[in-house]
Amino acid sequence: MEITNKVFIACRGAFLWLINFNQPFNAGAYIRDYSYAPENQSTEAEPKDTIVLSPNKCYTRISGFWLSAPKIHYYTFNWRKDMRVQQEVGKWKSLLNESMGNWTRDHGTVLIILHELSRSGAPILGIELSKRFKQSMNVIVISLKEGPLEEVLKDLGVPVYIIDWDNELLRTPLLELILDAGKVNCAVVNSICSYPVISVLKKRNIPIVSLVHEFASYIRERDIFPLIHEASIAVYYPAELVAEDAYRVHPELSKLNVKIMPQGLIKAPASINDELIAAEKLKIQEVFQGSEKRDICVILGVGSIEPRKGVDLFISAAQSMVRAGCPRPFRFVWIGSAISHFHRMDYQVHLCEQIRRAGLSEYVYIMDSVQNLQAAFKEADVFFLSSRLDPLPLVSLEAMEHALPLVCFDRASGIADYLKESTKTCSTVVPYLDIESAAKKIHELVTNPEDRRRIGLAQQELARNRFDMDDFTAKILSEFRTVLEN
Q: Which of 137-141, 200-204, 263-267, 343-347 shows the lowest mean pLDDT across its residues?
C-alpha cells in the first residue's frame, strides 16, 4: 500500500510538472528556502530572529536527488499545500476588503498585535489603544488566540483577525496579506507573548513599538528580549523595576531605545447585558456580606489563579489575621479563574485544601471571574496585591481609582515603586513576600476606618496624577511620527 501511494504521488507530481512546464519557477530560491541546513552549520551565525519558526517548516524539504530537479519536487510535494494557502488567502482577501472598505484615511495603518483576547491586563490595554488610535488613524488588530474581547473590537469598528500561529502553513501568508491590504506602516507589539510576529515586521522594516508587561525572570525563551530590543524603535517598560530585571537577565540589552512609562488607568470593557450585570452585582454582594448582610470588612484580590499571582499568599495573610484576632468581622475574597486546565487541577486544588485544612472557609472565598469588576471595587474596603511578580497590573490602578488602600509587596510589582514615591502612600508597601507584615498592615486598615479612608484618597490622587493614558498614547504616536516623517 505504501509503495502504491508513493507511485501515485510521483505520477501526480510528474503530471503537474508537465502541464505547468511553462510556468515561471525560481529553482535557486526554492532550493535555498526548502533545503535542509548543513548539520555542521553554526547556529551562532544565525540572526537573532531565528527563534521564530520558519513558515516553511511544514513544507516537504528538498535533498538528495531532488536537488537536481527542484521543479518536479515542488509539484510532487508542495504544490497542493500552496494551493491550500492560496484558497485560504482568497477568503481572507474578501474579509479584508469588506472591513477596510469604509476607511477614509489614506496615510497608512497601525497594526496592534495581541497574544490573546482574554479579559486580562495586556489585551485590555490593547483594546484601549485601538480605541484611541482610531481617532486619528486606521487600526487593525491581530490576535494569536481567540477570546471574548473580539466582540468589543467589532463593536468599536476595529478590524480584528485571529491568526493561529501554530498553523505554520498559513500564518505568514495571512500576516503578509494583512500588511499589504491594510497598508500597515507601523506596529505595536503588545506584550512579550506577541513576539512571533516580529520577524515578519522586521523584514519589511515596519517601525515597531514594543510594550513589555512581563519580568524577564519568568520568560523561558532566552532570545525574546534581545529580539524585541533589536527590532523595536522603542521598548516601553511600565516601571524601573521591570526594566532592571530585563538588564539583569540580559546584560547585553541596549538601553538606547528604552522608555520607562506606566500606562494610564483603564477600565475593563463592561458587559452590555443588563441581566448579567445585575446577577454579578448580586453575587458579589452575597459573597462579600454573606446571607446575614453583616457589616463585613472585605479584603479584595483579583487576578488569574496561578502561582505568580500569589493566591496562596493571599490565603496565608487571612490565616495570619485570624490567628492574631481582629475585633471587626472581615473576609478575604479573590475574584479570578485558573488560566489553564493544569492550574485548575493542581494549583487551585491546593488552594481549596489550604482554605479547608486551615479552617478558613468563613474568612476566605474564591469566586469565578466576572465581566464587571466595578461592583467589587465599590463594595470592597482594602485591596491586597499578593503577587510574587507582577509588572503593573491594571487592577491595582483601578483599585486606587476607587480609593481602596492597596497593600502590596516591595520588589514584587512596579506599583510598589510608585507608591513609595510619596510619604502619603508608601505605608502600605511591605517587605517582599512578608506575609506577617502584610497581615499586620491589613489589620490596621480594617480596624482604623479613618486611616483607611485617608490612605485610600492619597493613593487615588497618586493614580490620577501619575498614570495618564492620554500621555501614554501620545508618546507612542510620537514615536511613529518621528520615524515616518524622516
A: 343-347
* Angle of the 435-447 helix axis to the 449-466 helix axis, nearest 10: 110
Q: CATH class for domain 105-267+470-484?
A: alpha beta
C-alpha 63/C-alpha 44 separation (Å) is 24
What backbone phi and psi angles, to 5 degrees, belong to 274?
Answer: -60, -40
Cα(416)–Cα(405) distance, integer angstroms: 12
Cell numbers placing 40: 555542521
Residues 6+ apart with CB under 8 A from 160: 117, 140, 141, 142, 143, 150, 153, 154
Q: Within 13 Å, how many C-alpha atoms sit on residue 195's CB side? A: 24
* 137 residue type, one letter: M
> Comparing C-alpha atoms, which of 438, 395, 392, 440 is closest to residue 418?
392
Domains 105-267+470-484 and 274-467 share a fold: yes
Query: What does the pLDDT average to over 59-79?
Result: 77
Fold of 274-467: Rossmann fold (3.40.50)
* Residue 157 falls in which region: left (phi positive, over 0), alpha (psi -120 to 50) or beta: left
Nearest CA among 86, 80, 85, 87 for reference residue 8: 80
Per the document, the length of the chain is 486
Greatest CA span in the chain, whole angstroms?
89
How many other C-beta atoms are found inside a 10 Å radius of the C-beta of residue 366? 20
| Mean pLDDT for the stretch of residues 344-350 | 85
Instruction: For 274-299, write each residue's pLDDT tens digit.
Output: 788 888 889 999 899 876 656 899 99
Cell (9 digits) for 349: 486544588
Nearest in space to 125 (alpha carbons), one of 480, 472, 485: 472
pLDDT at 54: 40
Task: Answer whether 304's CB lies under 8 Å from 393's CB.
Answer: no
Q: Please provide the average confidence, as pLDDT, over all residues in the chain.
A: 86
192 by Cβ neighbours in 10 Å (0-12 / 13-18 / 19+) ranks as: buried
